[in-house]
Write a sequence for this structure.
């Protein structure tokens, strides 16, 4: 339609964004396949084979509002997010680039604080920020700061969204919805009982430990559009069904409280420090133990499994004994979440 406009929902990481990517980006870009994972796969990043090595790379723009929030800030998020997209492809992060665009008048001290956070996350993940770009736009042309990070890594064993197999167990590495709930709470000034805190964290150590402990297939970080969005992507690309058990979903009390208050589904909220993965049933215990020993994996749980029935669909077994389809969200419940 000639007078259609971009809406905030198009940036929400759900079905609205997917449609935009398929209708415009994949149509307009004349892209040849240069490696095992390219643009058409719409995975967490791309993979290119160079000699006997598989290079993975990914890029992400960060626009979170507010830029400082309980548990982190835009700097930590911009490094962790890219580290995690490499990690869920099985890639050990090697180096990163960052491009910063700031609005004229942005406080110098805030910029220093953000750089310090970026460095902390990078040091923890064992990755170096080796190149970048910095631009300033006139006041009002941008809301504060936007940070884009690009990362490269090497995958010994490439993981894609299409690898989940029937019978494999689904692990989530901890509580769900923490980042999304924290941003909504801070932005709207909502107080709930208990502290809301973002889970933002770089997860290469966790992903490495899991892969070492057993056969791990599809991995995905459930960011925008949450666990519901990530599982739907895995189910449809892997052509298997996924059944998850509502009673097993780890959700913190404050996140539950906020969701109840605002009528939000925690399955659709953004996570910035969690991984969903498929694991062979025989390796499930050893992988779970290995994850739980890592810094960010203490709350890891099995929440479901991949089935032959209902290929491409995610089914929730409810606590009252029923079951329902979990649809892919149109987008995250609120914009500018990461
Ligand atoms: Mg991702």
């Amino acid at each position: 339609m000639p007078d259609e406009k971009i809406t905030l929902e198009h940036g929400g990481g759900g079905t609205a964004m997917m449609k935009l990517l398929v209708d415009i980006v994949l149509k307009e870009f004349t892209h040849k396949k240069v490696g095992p994972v390219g643009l058409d796969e719409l995975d967490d990043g791309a993979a290119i084979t160079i000699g006997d090595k598989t290079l993975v790379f990914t890029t992400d723009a960060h626009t979170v509002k507010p830029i400082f929030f309980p548990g982190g800030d835009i700097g930590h998020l911009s490094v962790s997010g890219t580290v995690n997209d490499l990690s869920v492809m099985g890639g050990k992060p090697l180096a990163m680039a960052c491009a910063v665009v700031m609005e004229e008048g942005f406080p110098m001290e805030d910029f220093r604080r953000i750089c310090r956070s970026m460095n902390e996350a990078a040091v923890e993940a064992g990755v170096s920020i080796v190149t970048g770009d910095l631009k300033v736009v006139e006041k009002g042309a941008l809301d504060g700061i936007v940070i884009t990070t690009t990362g490269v890594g090497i995958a010994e064993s490439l993981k894609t969204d299409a690898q989940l197999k029937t019978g494999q167990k689904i692990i989530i590495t901890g509580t769900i919805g923490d980042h999304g709930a924290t941003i909504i709470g801070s932005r709207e000034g909502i107080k709930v009982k208990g502290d809301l805190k973002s889970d933002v964290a770089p997860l290469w150590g966790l992903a490495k430990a899991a892969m070492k402990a057993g056969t791990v297939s599809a991995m995905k970080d459930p960011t925008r559009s949450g666990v519901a969005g990530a599982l739907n992507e895995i189910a449809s690309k892997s052509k298997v069904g996924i059944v998850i058990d509502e009673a097993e979903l780890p959700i913190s009390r404050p996140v539950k409280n906020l969701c109840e208050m605002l009528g939000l589904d925690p399955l659709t909220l953004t996570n910035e420090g969690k991984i969903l993965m498929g694991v062979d049933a025989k390796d499930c215990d050893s992988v779970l133990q290995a994850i739980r020993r890592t810094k960010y994996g203490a709350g890891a749980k099995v929440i479901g499994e991949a089935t032959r029935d209902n290929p491409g669909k995610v089914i929730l077994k409810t606590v009252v004994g029923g079951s329902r389809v979990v649809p892919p969200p149109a987008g995250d419940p609120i914009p500018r979440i990461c």
About this structure: Residues 108-125 form the longest helix (18 residues).
